[in-house]
Structure prediction request, 131 residues.
Amino acid sequence: MVKKKEEMKKFFTEFGMGVDLHGQDVTKAAARAVKEAISWRSPTGIVDLANINDKGEPTRDVLIDVIVASPYPDEVNAEEVLKVIPYGNKQLTSIKGGLKTKGMYLERMDKPEAPDYIIALACVEIYIDLD
Prediction:
């Protein structure tokens, strides 16, 4: 059983922003935000701390806690968003936030009006059980 994050050691916190310019897809924007957050760092020490084996699996408990803020939090598909994280026990909380703004109308896109740009923000925290 995975411990609660309060019982584990925080390894890092990072933030990201993701945008869907044409599809108005909050899940796509959220996944891009999480991917950006985890791409900011190369947590090389996690291999040793989490005892990651040759298969790329941690042998210690690793919890990845994700908070995503978007204009339509109920439309975020957590399972899809969490696919961008390669390992660990993952959990996602989706809250209202982010940004929605009018996009640009391009005649060649054959759309009657400018689509909304959807912007999501993500906070990704990694916790490791060192006991």
Q: What stands out?
A: The domain at 7-128 is CATH 3.30.1330.20 (60s Ribosomal Protein L30; Chain: A;). The mean pLDDT is 87. Strands lie at 9-20, 62-70, 89-96, 99-102, 116-128. The chain has one domain: 7-128.
